[in-house]
Design goal:
about 160 residues, mainly alpha, about 0% strand
Amino acid sequence: MRMTDFSTPTQHDPEDRRKHLDFIQSVVTRMSAASSNAKAWLLPVVTAAYGYALTQRADSVALLGLGATLLFAYLDANYLRQEKRFRSLYKAVASGRYNIETFSLQPDDLPSNIPTKETGDWPPVMPRWVNRMLPGPSVWLSWSVGAFYLPVAIVGVVIACVVH
């Protein structure tokens, strides 16, 4: 059940709130671990693809490595967006100012006045399907996504051009 009245906070048992925060923190930890795993899996995949493309002069394999880079970047950006949304939920529950259902693990229960940059979403003017499909610009431009995947993608483009 989603709570839509965010104006009047309800009284919650302090122990319930602590347990709720523990649940949210465990989700944030899982998202962070999944993000690290995406990076860990990407490196051997692109190293093998780019190395093979260079030694065998196969530009199609370099493009395959570039495609893997884009796929892993999307996965990682999605993990980061979810992590940001759960961190925002954590802050909202910890503050006690919002009427969020006890033990809710739905970031959609967040009040609408939380800035989209904090939740990793697009601004509200974007169509709903964009918010559901693509992480927002604050996620793509973050140091953990943009600064990691962009150089790997540039290397793939350069290798594809060199071997072509």
